[in-house]
Amino acid sequence: MMAVRPPVCDFGAKAPDFALPDPDGRLFSLAQIAGPKGTLVMFICNHCPYVQAVIDRIQRDAAELQALGIGVVAISANDVAEYPQDAPEHMKAEALRHGFSFPYLYDESQDVARVYGAECTPDFFGYNDRLELQYRGRLDASGRTPGDPGAKRELFEAMAQIARTGQGPQDQTASIGCSIKWKTQ
What we know:
single chain, 28% helix, five-stranded mixed beta sheet, three-stranded antiparallel beta sheet, Glutaredoxin, globular, 5 helices, alpha+beta
């Protein structure tokens, strides 16, 4: 499996709206997710080794960011016909297993992933309170295996800065992960 690196942050780009279901069919919109201090939109999936290497760190950072007023959501957009382990019933089990404190939504049409420009899992989009993109970087230095437990928490620190100042750091390292599994048209 080839690793993909998304482009760097397009500062100020507006967060595209969405309305997506969780595995139980409840719809969530961007307005419902957005936090008073910012919003983190993550594209993840169940089967990706890059996501699995950091999933507990994602949950840890998400919970701490939510306490700072950052709204958090995860979206899975993979083609479940080819990757059935990413189907909604498995997403629900994954969220329960890791104690997700945020909604985990399913983008069956892949339209939301396309409009965001998501390229890999994990792919992180950090917005300020005006829903302007301020961070498009990695969680930390982890790859297919978890990084050092003391690794700099790049995503957390960037989003905490956004919560305080409305602006993300200028120096950002792109995330790395498996490509989004696009449906064949």
